[in-house]
Amino acid sequence: MEHHKRIVAMSLAVALLLAACSEGDGAAEGVQPIEESQADPGEPEPEPEPVEQDPEPEVEAEPEPEPEPEPEPADIDITVIPDEITEEYVEAVLVELERLYSEALVLFQAEGEVTLEVSDRIGEAFSEAQFSIRVSEFEGYLDRSFEGIGSPGDLRPREHDVLAVLDASEDCIYVETLLDVSGVVGETRDLLTSFYLLGPKIGERPEILNATPWVFSQMPVGDEATLRTERPC
Description:
The chain is of the alpha+beta class. It is built from six helices and four strands; from the N terminus they run H-H-H-H-E-E-H-E-E-H. It has a domain at about 85-230. It has helices spanning about 1-20, 85-110, 115-125, 130-145, 180-185, 225-230, and strands at about 160-170, 170-180, 190-200, 215-220. Strands 1-2-3-4 form a four-stranded antiparallel sheet. Helix 2 packs antiparallel against helix 3 (about 115-125). The N and C termini lie far apart (about 175 Å).
């Protein structure tokens, strides 16, 4: 009997359950499906700003070393006779002698005659034998109305490039030079191979104009190869 009651109760429960499921779409009215909660993402995190890196410092090129200044040539004392007579010494002496010769020409053109000032400069630059030769040369310029030489305003000393000291002693210098006469003739000329024998100044003059102890003694001419072999000192 008791067993029969349990069967009836179970049957009734099943019937009630089926009736409930038949209403609606199978979901109890008012019952909403539970949705999974989603986390609020919130505002997106800002992307990190790129870190500015300091630019690599430019490597400056090392400056090229400045060339060392060329040593200035030692002052040449043309007032004395050195122990060693070098080409540089002779060249400096010739500059002084040519200065006197050029001054004599300028004065001669201005005066039109061999004045005391002209003769003093010729006598200071040339030996006694050469003095008379130079005076005759000047007078020849005057006879030709100074044809062959530049105007006084354009005159400048002749220039020598000493090629070799061929012979030398304490009272004699024999040299070969390249002579530029453009300053005297007033126009460009080819350089002339020239030979000079310098000798000592003899006697005292009223006014010392030549700072060197030398004068033009001779100006040898002839075959160049032969002149180079001469040893007059």
